[in-house]
């Protein structure tokens, strides 16, 4: 219930089901419950209850970091990277801090990226969150945004090539490494904030079409 109603933006019902979940928390795996708590952060942000969301996000990281320590002992050959649960928790905290315009959000997004394979769908989702953060923080983050966008658009530096990539890759549907609508959103938002002078007449025409 929490997942479904958070996904469709019904935060009231999501909260209702989370209260039910808490009653059965000791009957499910720890990581399953913490993953549900991650979703709580989402609907609290939808409520604009950022302080409460921040509290949950901080608490989740504390628990996931402890789990990660155990995993490092069990699987010592994988100690150079986080497991997805911790990466997701770092990303969630980054998003909350981003809403609060807290510069430390950048650090948590970068920590989250360590938990995913570079260029994978989850990696790109987190990278797009970082790009949105740079956009919201303004001009002093312009160069960081540009470098992140080059990585996000698979090494393409020019705006026309980035646009061509997002259209081609986004058209692959579920197999795509980026979502067409979300990639287009961060692309256009980045142009408006940082790169209006760089857009060509040809690309402007394509976008208007």
Walk me through what this model shows.
The protein has 209 residues and is mainly alpha-helical. 71% of the residues lie in helices and 0% in strands. The chain has helices spanning 2-7, 11-23, 30-46, 50-74, 84-99, 105-113, 121-137, 142-152, 159-170, 180-194, 201-208.
Counted by DSSP, the helix tally is 11
Mean pLDDT: 87
Shape: globular
- Ends: how far apart? 40 Å
What does the secondary structure layout of this molecule look like, with pairings?
Blueprint: H1 2-7, H2 11-23, H3 30-46, H4 50-74, H5 84-99, H6 105-113, H7 121-137, H8 142-152, H9 159-170, H10 180-194, H11 201-208
Helix pairs in contact: 2-3, 3-4, 3-5, 4-5, 5-6, 5-7, 6-7, 7-8, 7-10, 9-10
Key phrases:
71% helix; 0% strand; mainly alpha; 209 residues; 11 helices
Concise overview:
This protein is an all-alpha fold. 71% of the residues lie in helices and 0% in strands.
């Amino acid at each position: 219930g929490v997942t479904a109603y958070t996904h469709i933006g019904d935060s009231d019902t999501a909260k209702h089901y989370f209260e039910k979940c808490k009653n059965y928390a000791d009957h499910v795996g720890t990581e399953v419950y913490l993953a549900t708590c991650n979703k709580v952060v989402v609907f609290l942000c939808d409520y604009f209850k950022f302080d409460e969301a921040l509290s949950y996000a901080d608490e989740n990281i504390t628990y996931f970091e402890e789990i990660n320590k155990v995993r490092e002992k069990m699987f010592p050959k994988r100690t150079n990277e986080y497991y997805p649960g911790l990466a997701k928790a770092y990303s969630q905290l980054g998003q909350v801090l981003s809403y609060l315009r807290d510069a430390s959000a950048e650090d948590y997004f970068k920590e989250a990226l360590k938990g995913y394979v570079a260029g994978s769908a989850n990696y790109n989702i987190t990278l797009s969150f970082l790009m949105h953060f740079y956009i919201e923080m303004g001009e002093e983050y312009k160069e960081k945004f540009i470098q992140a966008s080059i990585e996000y658009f698979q090494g393409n530096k020019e705006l026309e090539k980035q646009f061509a990539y997002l259209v081609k890759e986004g058209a692959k549907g579920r197999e795509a490494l980026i979502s067409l609508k979300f990639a287009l959103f961060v692309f256009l938002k980045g142009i408006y904030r940082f790169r209006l002078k760089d857009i060509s007449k040809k690309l402007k025409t394509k976008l208007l079409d």
